[in-house]
Amino acid sequence: MGIATSPTLDARVINFIGRTGKILIDGKWSEAASGKTFDTYNPATGEILARVAAGDRIDIDRAVKAARKAFEGPWGRMTSSDRGKLIWKLADLLEQHLEEFATLETLDNGKPLTISRVADVPLAVDLFRYMAGWATKIEGTTIPISVPYAPGAKFLAYTKREPVGVVGQIIPWNFPLLMAAWKLGPALATGNTVVLKPAEQTPLSAIRLGELITEAGFPEGVVNIVPGLGETAGAALSAHPDVDKIAFTGSTEVGRLILQAAAGNLKKVSLELGGKSPNIVFADSDMKAAIGGAASAIFFNHGQCCCAGSRLYIEQSIFDQVVEGVSNQAKKIKVGPGLEPDTQMGPLVSKEQLDRVCGYLESGFSEGAKATAGGKKIGNQGYFVEPTVLVNTDHKMKVVQEEIFGPVVTAIPFKDADSVLPIANDNIYGLAAGIWTKDISKAHRVAEKLRAGTVWINCYNIFDAALPFGGYKQSGWGREMGKDSLELYTEVKAVCTML
Ligand code: ADP
User: Fold this and answer.
1) Is the Cβ atom of 231 under 6 angstroms away from ligand 1?
2) CB of 170 closer than 6 A to ligand 1?
């Protein structure tokens, strides 16, 4: 474990990763019932970074029981104001440990430390604060009812929004801490209890967050954290008969498995899945902004974003200029280990992901695509791949149709808005889309026609705790963040009284 001897790393981080990561159930940390562990790797070197308890069915079962007990006990009795204060306190603690969390995230996921510091951790803090405010604002309505078959009768009818109950949450590795916050924030604000399973590639920040949750004073069992593999711990959580709802972010394939597992007790399901988002540049755009925006739409987080702008459509008359601009930007990106201060793009998260991205590059080249930037992996240590721009691609190619989840963009020319829209929409996904033009009426007309949960106009990858995010079509069910996310975590109860 080379990291343990690094002179530049915070001692708290070295200490934390040197301990075996444990499971948090009912406020106590323990090994897995089986005693098994799994390793998490440093993607910059491929070396083992830390050892973590491998939770499985028995641990999940204990965690669900603890969550049920907390739901029916102290958490259920707590006032919404006190609930909000705890969530706010967690945000404060996280902010105080920003540097530590940023380092953990970079070590485990590979992303540049500069990004973990300004994006991952502060956005998680902000999300918890936003959701803390909602705790006291979960309201129902009073509804005048007529009841035609009860002439003359008088009623008082109202609705309440109540927590769904015990929620299972399964999160991915691309934004490990932020995805934990997106899931925990609304679930806790609305009064649910949680069993959270982080991704096996990146479990460290969620485990450390569990320590802060305990420190903040959440009652035991409100948040249980069970690291483990997807096919064991994840599958057990999604199939568990006493889990009322499962919230998942990850691949569309696994989303389908979750859905099947959830069928047993018909638990509620929300899914945030894959994407293959079109980014459309019109000839009347601010070219400099569009080129910079198109590059960051795909290269941010190494393309490991479900909403990455991976299909770049460029109006014919400016095609060469935009491709050249984006390619030049791609060539200038400094790729390296996330801890190095001048790194702009780190390694991909895992060997599996590197192989997957390289497999897509090979498939593209074999079908006739050409790279105007990048096109191959870098070196033999760690999981680095070049930021890549592909041209000579057509609509039917795998690299244009399938989610690569890496720093690879395909550029395709188009004639006008009417011809680009059917192509932009012809994909199984519908998570996000981008439009670049100075013509505001065209921008909004095109935005209306795009079948996507988020449309960015003259910007890309803008996220806010108040802005709902989620997908049309096979990109998922439900919306995270914003007011809409509260609906995923509440049941509506209609109460009707005859007066
Ligand atoms: P990726 O393919 O990008 O690694 P996944 O969709 O496989 O993304 O993983 C996202 C999350 O889903 C992870 O926490 C993973 O452990 C979990 N997972 C994987 N397989 C299953 C499964 N069969 N049931 C439940 N969760 C799973």
Assistant:
1) yes
2) yes
Please return the burial class of 88, using the count of CB atoms within 10 Å of its CB with bins 0-12, 13-18 and 19+. middle
Q: Evaluate whether 53 touches 22 at the Cβ level (below 8 Å).
A: yes
**pTM for this model (two decimals):** 0.97
C-alpha pair distances (Å), 54 with each of 165, 198, 228, 322 = 25, 11, 4, 47
For the chain, the C-alpha Rg in angstroms (whole number) is 24
Does the beta carbon of 278 sit less than 6 angstroms from any atom of ligand 1? no
403 C-beta closer than 6 A to ligand 1: no
Pocket residue to mutate for ligand 1, from 171, 254, 273, 404, most atoms within 8 A of Cβ: 254
Count of alpha carbons within 13 angstroms of residue 157, beta-carbon side:
12
Angle at which helices 98-109 and 80-96 cross, to 10°: 70
272: annotated active-site residue: yes
Q: Do 46 and 382 touch, CB atoms closer than 8 A?
A: yes
Cα diameter, the chain: 81
Active-site residue identified among 220, 272, 386, 480: 272
Rounded to an integer, what distance in angstroms lies between the CA atom of residue 421 and that of residue 447? 10
pLDDT tens column, 300-341: 999 999 999 999 999 999 999 999 999 999 999 999 999 999
82, 125, 256, 423 from 473: Cα distances, Å: 38, 30, 13, 15
Say which of 305, 306, 307, 358 is annotated catalytic: 306
Indicate if 100 belongs to the active site: no
* 171 CA: nearest ligand 1 atom: 14
Cα-Cα-Cα-Cα dihedral sign, residues 409, 414, 416, 421: negative
Tell me, in angstroms, the distance from the centre of ligand 1 to residue 373's CA.
Answer: 31
Per residue in 275-297, pLDDT (tens digit) is: 999 999 999 999 999 999 999 99
296, 437 in Cβ contact below 8 A? no
